[in-house]
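P.,

For your records, the input lines for the assembly:
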Amino acid sequence: MSATVADMHDSHDHHGPVHTGIKRWLFATNHKDIGTLYLVFALVMLFVGGLMALIIRAELFQPGLQFVDPDFFNQMTTMHALIMVFGMIMPAFAGFANWMIPMMIGAPDMALPRLNNWSFWLLPFAATLLVSTLFMPGGAPASGWTLYPPLVLQTGDAFPFAIFAIHLLGISSIMAAINIIVTILNLRTPSMSLLQMPMFVWSWLITAYLLILVMPVLAGGVTMLLMDQFFGTSFFEAAGGGDPVLFQHIFWFFGHPEVYIIILPAFGIISHVIPAFSRKPLFGHNAMVYATACIAFLSCVVWAHHMFTVGMPLAGQMFFMFATMLIAIPTGVKIFNWTATMWQGALTFETPMLFAIAFLFLFTIGGFTGVMMAMVPLDFQYHDSYFIVAHFHYVLVPGALFGAIAGCYFWLPKWTGHMYDERLGKIHFWLTTIFVNLTFFPQHFVGLAGMPRRIPDYAVQFTNFNMMSSIGAFGFGFSQLLLVYVIYKCVKGGAKATAEVWDNPEGLEWTVPSPAPYHTFEVPPVYTPRYGATH
Amino acid sequence: MAQASSKYFVPESTSWPLITSIGLFIMMGGLSILLNGGEIGQYAAYVGVAIVIWMVFVWFGEVIGESENGIYNDRVDMSFRMGMFWFIFSEVMFFACFFGALWYTRNLSLPWLGGEGNNFFTNQLLWEGFERTWPSNGPGNNGGAFEPMAAMGIPAINTAILLTSGVTLTVAHHALKAGKRGVLNTFLALTFILGFIFIGLQAEEYIVAYKDLNLTLETGVYGATFFMLTGFHGLHVTIGATMLLVIWLRCLKGHFTPKKHFAFEGVAWYWHFVDVVWLGLFIFVYWL
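Structure tokens returned:
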């Protein structure tokens, strides 16, 4: 290859992609192209996982068995979770990271662009391995996404495929996380100090650290499952001196930080949307940084609150209960600061802001139910009921997913150069918010009244609430087609977006034209914080 | 052709990651079919492995070429350093998972099966007469009677070998910095030769375990943790020694300067990492 350092490019805006057509995407090293790939992939998987959710809700519309047999129902709950967690929400935020982090910190691209391409292109293959298990003898894994042994060892031919799919997804996440950390720490414009970094960048820095911390542990855990199944080891078999509960510890050592891996980037997005539409700086920027770090640290020492009913020493229960409740403090700091940002702001309610405010309300509901379940005696009642389903869907759907949708509307004009259709966006918001509550709020009631999760049938007294929930789920699912249409329309055309798009929002990403040039910054820009040195 | 500016380096499009992903996909799909009893799967697995190995050659080859042509500036160098650091951190956590499993079984699950704490009836009703011991293949005597691997035989020799290799590697590094290429080449060669001797002895140890001690993967939780920890470590030593070999070949070709030699240092970090993991293994798996 011809290698010349002398290839200097002073002006870069005439540079577009080297390849056009499919090669541009298959061989991409550009952070924007790869970000787009991640986001499109996530959107597709949203509908794949969503379809499974609708099968679950169709079955639960009435008591009794209507459409699917119980084993397939369990496959649906398992695959819905795995696809939504690993295939939809994590890639979505990785897409945001790819698009926005280099622009926010004044970098030309991600630090390791080829690795970046690999991080993405592992995903479709891993997803293919995972989804293909639906068509195998014995069906897909039906043990729940937690893959507890010995139940998961009853999986048919799908078992090794699912395990290897998780390995590939793990490699993808670890490589993406390494890339993000290196980009933030090494490619940040020298005039931006660590504490001056925008909240989205901070959130992802901490998220990436958590990913590198816990993803290898999950890989180790599922490898042990594989060995137990095929090579006769006894990690999770009492007869050989092992313990199935060991897997639960390993899984939740990964699994609990994982829920913060999912929510922290959403926190980051909300921390940009609310100040922009309040026309005020984010209240307590540094406190937000410390709160995020605090949440991340605590998230690593609370995993066994998922296992209270499994049985553990009293001291263990007490420790995990109090440590879990402690998380409410830094989270409370964040909720308080977002609210305080809006206080006396010049508020307007464009679609991203509507989603951010809905996030604030609805995530808080999910947070409160979380504190309820942190308490050991109460958890004994709530465990494995629909109440927990309502809880984690409130933090994942109007929490993480709303964060992603808010970010999507917020940055679409920057990505495409066009304004999205505000009227359709608002319709999408109201449909989504009404249906999401119709879906998940009644589940609190049936859960508290004793309806168990992961069972395709239920007692007749739960019928009305389940019908509401199912109607809400279908409404929610089909409303998302509107999101696809709004995005499609925005990519195709619309009012020309200015460089700053909104009313003078803060950040380097708003100093470049819309759509952002293919290579954003070839020399580090000078970053001057708007609100004083440390704001 | 890659673009370079005074500040940043952004490579142009690449097909290697996609081909690597396809290779991994074929490899893992093939392995899955093989594990499910389909003999045909092994051929797919071979093809997948071949693709991945080919990609390692091509990808690293290209990067080495770019490096030698002076395309990488200090900032790229720092990106590689940070990337390697965090990669090793992820490896640390992977081993932590298996060390954690070892700790859990020795300190929690085996005592509980033996009736400690509030598990009196677990012991009485399920595993009557089982007493906690270590090494243990559990109350079910999984894998049959066995003898544990003694720490002071091959493992102690292997410890000495790995520690020595750490010293020779450091000598080589100092020689590189001082520009003494002869010393560098000699001591780097010593280092990877010691690495391969380690792997040979480890293989011998496995043969002894399977043939003479009846210590196998199926020997309860002792066999499971023993082989998984030493096995993954052995794999990492193999990778590390191979990387050292590549670095040695590059040194022979005159690559690296006293100031710029990230690849050498990255491999050295990796080697010290497998060294430290081994010390953990020697203490917790073999000795205590």
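Two observations worth noting. The radius of gyration of chain A is 23 Å. Residues 193 and 534 of chain A are 9 Å apart (CA to CA).

Regards
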